[in-house]
TrEMBL record:
It comes from the Bacteria. It comes from Vreelandella neptunia. InterPro entries: P-loop_NTPase, Rad50/SbcC_AAA. Residues 6-214 form the Rad50/SbcC-type AAA domain. Residues 297-345, 457-488, 631-664 are annotated as: Disordered. This is SMC family ATPase.
Length: 1021
């Protein structure tokens, strides 16, 4: 940071406005700030520090107390500083809180503190506004830009009066903060924190696994892993023998159930056969009625044969067509019924196959019933475990939630920091958006006005052309009207002369000239013009003249408007520049873009304030949450130990049950589902049997219908042939005596169709019943009804034997499975514990070393800073050796501090006179100043060499040279001159007269009763 221009108004001892142009001191100047005591030399440094951070160099006076008592009441106390940082120029202005006179009335009002920050172009013009008014925002932005807070700035760039020894005598902890900020070594601190967190996490996991192994053995009631192996060896053959006995009993039970189910199926077939026989007997009761209808239908057929030959022939042809259609329908119906019968057969086979699953489902039903009874025995232990587990989970969840929240707060803090940097950078880019938006909106209004003027000009030009044409036309009409009026008036006069001539008498005087002779009287003309016609012509002439004059005035007005329009177009074109020729939509797009950037600037400012508030809130939450976590961890460990012990006991009891039978409610649901499945399968089997029987009956009916259709087709063909024969014969002779006999023998189509359908339906149903009954008779020819009671008794006995063998096998196998599970858990637990212990050996060692809990208690960051401090001390010692005439060197103390105090960055001074190292606190005032000055210069050299984000290119020293002798003073000035030649600005405040001779460039501060003033002396411009 290099100051360029400083303006102080009503600040400190400066009553008016004082401006210091540091660029007038030369490039990288070494200058003296000189003046009497109390004139305001230190106030210049106060003003620089106040402009940047809102604090004075000594931080002993409140900024509100810096107002000059001699200043005019209407003059605000404010400081403005222009400075250069990394090639970019900035301007900051600060106004402290103060009282000022009211604008109206008497008394004063409070003017609140404010601050503005701008980025400047070359030449000092404002490029963008970074902070508009808020003090805290300006301080935070400058802290980010410079990389130092106010205290660090005072220790490394400004050495205030009486503060030389602060950096020199600072403890390791304080020096670590300063150096980590200067050299940007915070990454090493984050490494320390990450290593510590990783080691603690692994350590907790190791303890958990050790407790888990003890809980596994205790849950199996085992004294050790040797007892586990002995019991496994003895139990394995017993389990195999019990399993074989159970499988034999199970096979016997399945055989008995198969025989029982076959008997049930045979019983249902006998019942179906008897039902069909009953249906056939009821159907035969209708046979006499059917035979009567057949006889009546036969008589009608004879009568139809005697019908009119032509009608008989048509009816025969129609009957054949109908019979063929019925034959096709019957054939299609038979195909459909055969398909349905095949589907019913397949469905019956599927249902029969599913019926074989019923015994297994019933066996599962019986097992689940027993499992439910056994599971109820675990309820008491389960309740205790759930209570303990809930307590542990709640405590652990609360701990993890708080730890996660703590980590989340840290991540949020880091994210907010990154976001703030991004927002501040974006805010810098958007600072000029409002001004640009206003300018482009003005341009848009001007461009719209220009387009409107252009449109008006086209309209005015068209109107002018129309007005010119109208003017010419009206001028012609006015001339014609004037000529016509003159002609009419002349004709009127001629008519009047002719009328007068008619009244002339011989030797009578003329009324006009008085002559008695009338040689050529006016001749009478038939086209006389009346006075009214003359007046009408004169009126038309006047109207035409006025119209012409009006058109002339309108033409002149349009010309003036066109001229004014051209002037406005020229003015706007000059104001718009290149935008005058660009399309309006492009300018509109540019305005929209600036509108978007302006809205974005407002959003970014609001988001920046929100982020800063959120960061402060997170810092408070971090402290409270960290304290809470330290009190939670022991309680979580105790709750976890209780829960693990009860869990192990519960697992051992529950391992005697299969994995899928450890939840009573789930088993009850499964039990209900099994009952539903058995019922569904049996119902499906019955439905499939019924559907198969129905489909077979329908198939037989369809076959019978097809046979009947075939017969009808054959009869129809014969009838057609006979009708054709009779038609030929009837041509000669009629078979009936009279028409009455022929009509009495006929039936209408409806009656015939009714009789035929009833007869066919009866025959089809009879054929279906006989076919189905014949099938059952064939199937049951050599079979007798089964004894279901005896078969059920055999099945129950086999089921009881199977249950007995299952219980014996399950008891042995449950214990064996539990022991195998314990052995597997132990193997996994041992492997996991070994892996965790290996990890802890690595991460724990790294954490101890990185966090400085071994050896000399030097952390990783402090070790890195120690190396950097060694480089600083090398540079500082070169200067201190010269100023102390070879006596002193600054060295880093290598002995660790006592107790738990952090060490690694303490400073000692090597005294070559005694050959020993001693504390820098033992140096005298002058020696301390030399050491502090050397340290500051050495620090400046190293920071610049590492080319970090912080540039120490300016140094201000307030007093201290008076404690040096002449030789040390000369050496100090020589070193400052060398530093100046390296490109740094160095300002020195001192009363030492020798400095005036060696430092010709000075800022002379003069004091008076009306306030102090500053003048530049000896500058090399």
């Amino acid at each position: 940071m290099t100051p360029l221009n400083l303006t102080m108004q009503a600040f400190g001892p400066f009553a008016g406005t004082q401006t210091i142009d540091f660029t007038a001191l030369g490039r990288s100047p070494l200058f003296l700030i000189n003046g009497p005591t109390g004139a305001g030399k230190s106030s210049i440094l106060d003003a620089i520090c106040f402009a940047l951070y809102g604090q004075t160099t000594g931080n002993e006076r409140d900024p509100a107390q810096m107002r000059c008592d001699q200043a005019d009441a209407s003059l605000l106390t404010e400081v403005t500083l222009d400075f250069r940082l990394r090639g970019v120029e900035y301007r900051v202005r600060r106004v402290p809180q103060q009282e000022r006179p009211k604008a109206r009335g008497e008394g004063t009002t409070t003017h609140n503190a404010e601050a503005q920050l701008w980025r400047l172009k070359e030449g000092g013009e404002v490029e963008s506004c970074l902070v508009a008014r808020k003090v805290n925002d300006a301080t935070a932005e400058l802290h980010t830009l410079i990389g130092l807070d106010a205290n660090q700035f005072r220790q490394v760039m400004v050495l205030p009066q009486g503060k030389f020894r602060e950096l020199l005598l600072a403890e390791s902890k304080d020096r670590e903060k300063i150096f980590s900020q200067l050299f940007q070594t915070q990454i090493f601190q984050r490494i320390e924190e990450q290593l510590s967190a990783q080691a603690k996490q692994i350590e907790r996991a190791v303890k958990d696994h050790r407790q888990h192994i003890s809980g596994i053995l205790a849950g199996g009631e085992l004294v050790g892993e040797a007892a586990l192996e002995q019991e496994l060896e003895a139990l394995t053959p017993q389990v195999e023998a019990a399993r074989q006995a159970f499988e034999r009993a199970q096979q016997q039970r399945r055989t008995a159930e198969i025989k029982r189910d076959e008997a049930l199926a045979l019983e249902r077939q006998f019942e179906a056969r008897d039902a069909l026989a009953s249906d056939k007997a009821r159907h035969l009761v209708q046979q006499p009625h059917i035979e009567s209808m057949q006889a009546r239908l036969a008589q009608s057929t004879h009568a139809q044969a005697l019908h009119s030959p032509k009608t008989a022939l048509d009816q025969a042809q129609h009957a054949l067509t109908t019979a063929q259609a019925e034959h096709q329908q019957a054939h299609t119906a038979l195909t459909t019924e055969r398909t349905s019968a095949e589907k019913a057969q397949r469905a019956w086979e599927v249902a029969q196959e599913r019926q074989t699953e019923v015994p297994a489902l019933r066996e599962r039903h019986r097992q689940l019933t027993e499992f439910i009874e056994q599971g109820q025995q675990l309820s008491a232990l389960q309740g205790r475990f759930q209570t303990a587990q809930t307590a542990w989970q709640q405590a652990d969840a609360s701990l993890k939630r708080d730890e996660k929240q703590l980590d989340s707060i840290r991540q949020q803090g880091e994210a907010i920091g990154i976001n703030l940097e991004r927002l501040q950078a974006e805010l810098q880019q958007l600072a000029s958006a409002p001004a640009e938006l206003n300018r482009h909106n003005n341009l848009l209004n001007q461009r719209q006005e220009l387009d409107e003027l252009t449109r008006q000009r086209r309209e005015l030009t068209a109107q002018q052309q129309q007005a010119t044409d109208a003017l010419k036309r009206l001028q012609s009409e006015a001339s014609q009207a004037e000529h016509h009026a003159t002609e009419q008036e002349m004709r009127w006069h001629q008519g009047q002369a002719a009328l007068l001539a008619l009244s002339l008498e011989v030797n009578a005087p003329c009324p006009v000239c008085g002559s008695l002779d009338h040689p050529a009287p006016a001749a009478n003309n038939a086209n006389l013009v009346t006075q009214a016609q003359v007046e009408e012509a004169r009126a038309a002439q006047e109207y035409a003249r006025q119209s012409f004059q009006g058109a002339e005035r309108h033409h002149q007005q349009l010309a003036q408007q066109i001229k004014y329009n051209a002037e406005q177009v020229q003015r706007l074109t000059q104001q718009l520049g290149e935008w005058a020729s660009q399309p309006l939509v492009e300018l509109q797009k540019t305005c929209d873009e600036w509108q978007r950037q302006t809205a974005r600037q407002t959003s970014v400012e609001r988001e920046t304030h929100q982020q800063i508030a959120a960061r402060d809130t997170l810092r408070r939450e971090w402290g409270a949450l960290d304290k809470q976590l330290k009190a939670q961890r022991p309680a979580v460990e105790k709750a976890k130990e209780d829960a693990l012990r009860l869990e192990s006991q519960r697992d051992q009891l529950s391992q005697s049950l299969p994995e899928n039978a450890r939840e009573p409610e789930a088993m009850r649901q499964t039990l209900t589902e099994l009952e539903r499945q058995v019922s569904h399968i049996e119902h499906a089997w019955e439905v499939a049997q019924q559907a198969l029987s129905n489909s077979q009956t329908q198939l037989a009916r369809a076959e019978e219908q097809l046979r009947g259709a075939n017969e009808r087709v054959e009869r129809s063909e014969k009838s057609l042939q006979q009708a054709q024969t009779e038609w030929q014969a009837a041509l000669q002779q009629s078979p009936f005596e009279d028409n009455a006999a022929f009509q009495a023998a006929q039936l209408d189509d409806t009656q015939r169709q009714t009789f035929t359908q009833q007869i066919e339906a009866y025959q089809r149903r009879l054929a279906e019943l006989e076919g189905a009954l014949q099938n059952y008779q064939t199937q049951l020819a050599e079979k007798t009804p089964p004894d279901l009671t005896a078969l059920a008794t055999l099945t129950d006995a086999a089921q009881a034997e199977e249950n007995t063998q299952l219980e014996a096998w399950r008891t042995c196998d449950g214990r064996l499975s539990m022991l195998h599970g314990i052995r597997q858990k132990l193997a996994k637990a041992h492997a996991a514990q070994a892996e965790l212990e290996a990890q802890y050996q690595l991460w724990g060692t790294l954490s101890e070393v990185a966090n400085g809990r071994t050896g000399h208690r030097i952390s990783l960051q402090r070790f890195v800073l120690g190396v950097l401090l060694d480089d600083v001390l090398i540079q500082a010692s070169e200067r201190l050796v010269r100023m102390s005439r070879g006596r002193y060197q600054l060295v880093r103390r290598e002995d660790p501090s006592k107790g738990t105090k952090a060490s690694g960055l303490e400073l000692d001074v090597a005294d070559t006179y005694t050959g020993k190292n001693r504390s820098v606190a033992t140096l005298s005032g002058g020696e301390s100043f030399m050491a502090a000055l050397s340290l500051a210069l050495g620090l400046s050299d190293v920071v610049q060499a590492y080319a970090g984000g912080i540039q120490l290119d300016t140094l201000f020293i307030d007093e201290g040279f008076g404690s040096l002798d002449q030789d040390a003073l000369d050496q100090a000035i020589a070193m400052l001159s060398e530093l100046q030649m390296g490109g740094r600005m160095i300002g020195v405040i001192s009363h030492v007269s020798e400095l005036k001779e060696q430092m010709p460039v000075r800022l002379e501060v003069s004091a008076s009763r009306h306030g102090s003033s500053v003048a530049v002396k000896g500058a090399l411009l």
